[in-house]
């Protein structure tokens, strides 16, 4: 299957799928058949494999995407995104591919990532967003692109995740930890979302016995400005606002 995928032999791939070959098997280099098809630009074979339930099988999606962005390989990046890889995957420094594209001033790649759903609000280990990186780089067109995307994503977030019906009760899980600390598993509490953000913060502080926190953020590290932005079942993090810029 790996050979058929890497060479673009769709008819052989179909035959092997029908024969029940394990489509997610890895070769000695750790690659799956789908990854071989994507690497070599065989979109038809990749589609056949995906329809059969094949997976890319990449160990660290964020590191992989950042490496592809660093190489400025727009075509390979597009094929990976078309194969279902998460554009908001993070590397070891919690940087997304959009962070890297913004820091390098890569406008076409940034457009592609945004179209695939990359978040402008993602925060890296140092608390920087892709827009922060673009502003340091000084590419005016890229800064404008990300500023527009920021407004669009904030509006979409408010629309899609706001309360759907007046009076509908919404729950959230609040953790006494920083979303950038993937290993922090401190206490958490499930709360009904009240009318005001201050009430939510104060209730969470009392339940979690945290005195210094004064704001809540999403998993992307974006500061929650209003309870209408909170969706039912959303995970939030109770933090000190001063840590957001670190």
From TrEMBL:
This is Potassium channel SKOR-like. Residues 171-246 form the KHA domain. Keywords: ANK repeat, Ion channel, Ion transport, Potassium, Potassium channel, Potassium transport, Transport, Voltage-gated channel. Pfam families: Ank, Ank_2, KHA. The keyword Ligase does not apply. It comes from Nicotiana tabacum (Common tobacco). Transmembrane segments: none annotated. One of its GO terms (cellular component) is monoatomic ion channel complex. PANTHER family: POTASSIUM CHANNEL (PTHR45743:SF11), POTASSIUM CHANNEL AKT1 (PTHR45743). ANK repeats lie at residues 1-28, 29-61, 93-125. SMART domains: ANK.
């Amino acid at each position: 299957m790996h050979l058929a995928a890497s060479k673009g032999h769709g008819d052989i791939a179909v035959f092997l799928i029908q024969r029940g070959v394990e489509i997610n098997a890895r070769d000695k280099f750790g690659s799956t058949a789908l990854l071989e098809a994507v690497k070599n630009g065989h979109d038809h074979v990749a589609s056949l494999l995906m329809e059969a339930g094949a997976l890319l099988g990449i160990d660290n999606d964020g590191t992989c995407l950042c490496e592809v962005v660093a190489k400025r390989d727009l075509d390979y990046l597009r094929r990976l995104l078309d194969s279902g890889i998460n554009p908001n995957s993070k590397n070891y420094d919690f940087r997304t591919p959009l962070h890297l594209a913004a820091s390098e001033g890569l406008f076409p790649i940034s457009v592609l990532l945004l179209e695939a759903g990359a978040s402008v609000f993602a925060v890296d280990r140092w608390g920087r967003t892709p827009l922060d990186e673009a502003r340091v780089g000084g590419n005016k067109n890229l800064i404008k692109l990300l500023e527009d995307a920021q407004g669009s994503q904030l509006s979409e977030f408010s629309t899609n995740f706001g309360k759907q019906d007046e009076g509908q009760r919404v729950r959230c899980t609040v953790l006494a930890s920083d979303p950038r600390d993937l290993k922090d598993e401190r206490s958490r509490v499930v709360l009904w979302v009240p009318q005001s953000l201050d009430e939510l913060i104060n209730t969470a502080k009392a339940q979690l016995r945290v005195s210094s926190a004064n704001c809540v953020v999403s998993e992307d590290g974006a500061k929650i400005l209003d309870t209408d932005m909170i969706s039912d079942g959303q995970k939030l993090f109770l933090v000190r606002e001063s840590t957001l810029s670190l």
